[in-house]
Amino acid sequence: MTAVLTPRTDPAPAQPSPVSTGALTLVELRKMVNTRSGAVLVALVFAIVLTTTVVRLFAGDAADRTLTGFLTYSVSPVSIVLPIIGVLSVTSEWSQRTALITFSLVPRRSRVVTAKLAAVLTVAVGTVVLSILLAAIGNGLAPAFVDADGSWSLSGTALLNITLYHVGSLFIGFAFGMITMNSVLGILVHFGVPSAWSVLREYESGVDDAGKWLDTNTTMSPLGETVALTGQEWGKVLVSVALWGVLPSVLGYLRLRRTEVK
């Protein structure tokens, strides 16, 4: 009698599941503070918010010492640093020569870009939370040291405006990082474009008219206020962010897809 051997079929090895976008975002957040420059910038944001809170505590009118007053006082100073964080969130891959490792571990470049953008937005929201926390501390301490209104009211409009201001600042920095892929160049372009607008607007009336729609220093300034924006003001914000945020991001992503990672 001849035995019939049945060939053994082992189950196929399980494929490892891809890393989630949330996990990639946490990695990108950690990379933001893993370098000396990133850690310094994050610490600088905290220092600016703390300093403006102390200044508002002892300077200005009593009517300005409210939760909203403390919160809005830090918006403009912080917006100077946030775009630099946005630039470095992208360009650090190339300046630190870690791009090859990153894109080898996550070959789909769109996922890396998405995680970086999510990390940038998280930093923006975190900045708002930090500002509210320190503003609340300042508002609580103010009556014990100086004359203060002490109001705890914070309108949804003010909170929305400040959040969008920080999101827009970081996103535009992110966009310049995407299009340049170079830390120094990205930072220079970000600060050079508004300066160029200011010079040109002094000599050309047509440029001045265009600047009301395209200069982000002008279009986004109403977001630093506590009142609702008009329809025209929202239009100016959208047009300027589309030009200096969305367009460079798209062009930078197309460039990234075609760039050989070494």
From TrEMBL:
Keywords: Membrane, Transmembrane, Transmembrane helix
Highest taxon of source: Bacteria
Transmembrane segments: 39-58, 70-91, 112-138, 158-176, 183-200, 237-256
Segments forming a coiled coil: none
Record-given protein name: ABC transporter permease
